[in-house]
Design brief:
105 residues, mainly alpha, 2 helices, DUF883 domain-containing protein
Length: 105
């Protein structure tokens, strides 16, 4: 009769070990799933974000160059107006007249 409690204790210990093993497996599976998601984001999402950053950088550089060219043209026009105010005024009046006639129709 003494062996029955020992068997019962061994079965309880074994059941607890299986429960602990199941919990450990569940934890490991969650960790692996989390790492797989991070890896997928690294391989898929981050390169896409990098492409977007590169495109934004190229657009910013292009806009900066366009702004510099426009500034140079405006400075050139301003210099022309300072040097030739009569011609600039006559050109502006002629351009306004032509545009007025075109938009009038």
């Amino acid at each position: 009769m003494n062996s029955t409690p020992n068997i019962q204790q061994a079965l309880n210990d074994t059941a607890q070990d299986f429960r602990a093993l199941g919990e450990a497996a569940k934890t490991d599976f969650k960790q692996l799933s989390h790492e797989a998601m991070e890896l997928a984001q690294t391989k898929i999402i981050r390169p896409s974000a990098q492409l977007a950053r590169n495109s934004a950088q190229r657009l910013e550089d292009q806009a900066r160059r366009s702004a510099e060219v426009t500034k140079e043209k405006i400075d050139h026009m301003r210099g022309y107006v300072v040097e030739n105010p009569g011609r600039a005024l006559a050109g502006a009046l002629a351009g306004g007249l032509v545009l007025g006639l075109l938009f009038r129709r």
